[in-house]
Amino acid sequence: MSGDQLRQEFEQSGFVVVGDFLAEDEIAHALADAEAAADALGEDPHRPDRDFWGVHSRRLSGEALDRPGLNAIVRKPELHRIAQRLLCEDCVYDGIGMQVYLPHRGHKQSWHTDTDPDDLPFSCLTMVIYVQDQTPATGMTRLVPGSHRTPIEKRFPDHADLPGQFAAELPAGSLCAFQSTTWHSATENRSDRPRFALVARFCRPEYQRDRVPQYYGRMRHARGARRSGRPMFDHPTDEGSYPWPETYDPAELPFL
Ligand SMILES: O=C(O)CCC(=O)C(=O)O
């Protein structure tokens, strides 16, 4: 796909898939590092907030990911180049994290967006890089094409299949890049091995974390508006997390 086609697809659907982003040896090194990082995980911490939002995974960042095979992916010039094509020439790298979906624990992620549409034009680019074949058994990223233009404003079943969804059943080495307001989720890992989703983020220079910290950690979930680390309120406020007071009728989802 040419740069223009990629950008056009990204603007229309809210996401694009890039095949063969990683070579065989890059996949093997990164997978070995991801497995070592997962082996070093301790017991599940008590996280009632993540349970409430339906985010059942272990998230790694910082030192836990400082491993040569993972660093090599982040430093790949092609990663930055794709972000430049999709966002803008002077886009800025905003770090990586890795979601680990452990087997036999019901690990999966509810439908959500990575930023709050009230904060537009702020938006960031999320790039999920796959080091394993993505199958219905391992779990897969799901996205709703075109949903980046429609804010989540009511409750709906956190983990349900949605009409028109795209399930990223992709070979290892693929990448999925999406706008932060695109509705997405991860299906349950029903296999016997951990599933890894390496997530790199980029943003426009004017929206770097240290310039506009108030925009970060604000997400929309199927259950409500989530402000990371903020208490729950009974009624919507700008400061707190809150559940949606109403529920969508499944035939009236706003992106339909
Ligand atoms: O695990 C995945 O496939 C997607 C990860 C994700 O959506 C996220 O971390 O926000």
Structure explained in plain terms:
The structure is a single chain. It is built from five helices and 14 strands. Strands 2, 5, 7, 8, 10, 12, 13 and 14 form an eight-stranded antiparallel β-sheet that branches. It is an alpha+beta fold. It has a single domain, classed as Jelly Rolls.
Main features:
single chain, 256 residues, alpha+beta, Jelly Rolls, 8-stranded antiparallel beta sheet, 6-stranded antiparallel beta sheet, 20% helix, binds 2-oxoglutaric acid
Provide a quick synopsis of the model.
The chain has 256 residues and is an alpha+beta fold. The chain contains 5 helices and 14 strands.
Radius of gyration: 17 Å
How much of the sequence lies in strands comes to: 25-35%
Bound molecules: 2-oxoglutaric acid
The CATH architecture would be: Sandwich
> Quick one: how many beta strands?
14
Mean pLDDT: 94
CATH class: Mainly Beta
Report how far apart the termini are: 27 Å
Query: CATH homologous superfamily, by name?
Result: q2cbj1_9rhob like domain
The helix content is 10-25%
| Order of SSEs | HEHHEEHHEEEEEEEEEEE
The secondary-structure class comes to alpha+beta
| Overall tally of structural domains | 1
Largest sheet: 8 strands, antiparallel
CATH topology: Jelly Rolls
Task: Tell me the overall shape.
Answer: globular
Low-confidence stretches: none
Number of helices: 5
